[in-house]
Amino acid sequence: MFPLRKPPAPPWRVNLLVVQPTPFCNINCDYCYLPNRDSTKRMPVSTLVRAVEQVLAGGMVGERLSIVWHAGEPLVLPVSYYEEAFRALAALPAARGKRIAHSIQTNGTLINDAWCQLIKEHSINVGLSIDGPDFIHDAHRKTRRGLGTHRQAMRGVEALRKNGISFHAIAVITEQSLDHADEIFAFFLEHDIRQVGFNIEEVEGANRSSTLAKESAERKLRDFLGRMYWLQKSSNGAVKIREFDRAYEAIARSAAPAEGNDQSEPFGIVSVDCDGNLSTFSPELLGVSSETYGDFCFGNVLAGDLARVPKNRKFKRVLRDIRAGVRLCAETCEYFALCGGGAPSNKYFENGSFASAETMYCRHTIQAPIDIVLADLEASLGVNRRDAEAARGRETADSLVA
Fold it and tell me: What is the pLDDT of residues 282-309, one digit of tens each?
């Protein structure tokens, strides 16, 4: 359907380093894709330094390196751990002339004034996972004793607000969410949460099923997203929804079609776990295993393996299969120019192969928002054309009368 140009060749560009400082999480969401969430291992700061050194030394980073602290719950490690880590990174000779920007994705339950002080001191971007009002959130995001976590997360929200820290929210959409678009939108509006992204409940990693993986739920999800778009528009953008912003961006750049994306191109995203194991492509691949490939570890930063990843046999096999999937998308999907080939992890866990095409992620996170935005743009252009034609008609009538 779309011509696929030759993929970018080495040296590849690192756009994002995902650091998993510990697999442990203090809560137990039932849709979480991460295995080993009971392990309390932590990444030594020396391992972090080795990872950043190798990324910077490889000539794959421009003036700015983005680091996301992620998976399980980064804030279970103390503030002092991050203070030590930031000092060590600032002292790296390879970091001179580079801007290292940090982000933390957190469930919010542990945020207090000490964390807020660290966040402000280091200009850390904060993403907070909260699914909406308590009856939606607490249905899936529970403590290890089975209790809801909404109240604790809202304490984190209040601490951020009190300290003047802006943040964005990520809400997981399950089948239960689909009947409550108005309540979910009103929650974010009421609590002055102005930027929201919707992650669908995915079949991925340790989460082997999804309440959205049925035809009736798929139809309702389209309605849910349509309602969210209308609510966003009618509020004059008081709450900005990531999926619609991305859809507008994709449509705006459609004159220069996508050629892959950060998840399907090597080293666009580099992920490192607490033991120094490294991976690339979708961050969700690190730490999970498969019958076909074993794990998705392509080396270890403690062994200096980052530069050797392109020669790794497993990496070559995964890359070959991912590129076969991107070609299949280009041949079969009318959205390819706006997407670049989907997310490899979703393809593997849903379809059983990287060399495959459409997934739930594609349909709900890419296609549906683009369809909704395009329909609105087309309707708006139609109204504008009618208005212009009516104006020309009035001008003609006026000239005849004159």
Answer: 999 998 888 888 899 999 999 988 989 9
DSSP single-letter state for residue 309: G
**Pairing between strand 294-295 and 125-129?**
unpaired
Integer Rg of the chain from CA: 23
Average pLDDT on 73-80 reads: 97
Whether the pLDDT of residue 11 is over 70: the answer is no
Which candidate, 71, 354, 32, places its Cα nearest to that of 203? 32
E strand map for 55-151: 64-69, 99-106, 125-129
What is this structure's pTM?
A: 0.88
Token pair 């392509």: residue: 298
Least confident of 75-79, 86-90, 179-183, 390-394: 390-394
Measure the CA–CA gap between 277 and 129, rounded to whole angstroms: 26
Q: Nearest-CA neighbor of 250 among 341, 357, 329? A: 341
Rounded CA-CA distance 324/310 in Å is 17
- The residue count for the chain: 402
Do the Cβ atoms of 308 and 299 come closer than 8 Å? yes
Cβ contact 20:278 at 8 Å? no
Residues with Cβ within 8 Å of residue 306, at least 6 apart in sequence:
51, 54, 55, 58, 270, 278, 299
- Residue 218: Cβ within 10 Å count: 14
Round to whole Å and give the CA distance between 220 and 250: 24
Provide the 8-state DSSP code for 134. Answer: H
The amino acid at 43: M
d(CA 289, CA 165): 38
How far is it, in rounded angstroms, from Cα 306 to Cα 363?
Answer: 34
Distance CA 120, CA 115 (A): 9
Rounded-to-5 percentages of helix, strand, coil across the chain: 45, 15, 40
For residue 88, CA distances in Å to 53, 163, 295, 302, 393 come to 11, 26, 30, 16, 71
Return the closest-CA partner of residue 278 out of 238, 309, 232, 256. 309
Pairwise CA distance, residues 360 & 210, whole Å: 10
Tokens 């000539």, residue located? 59
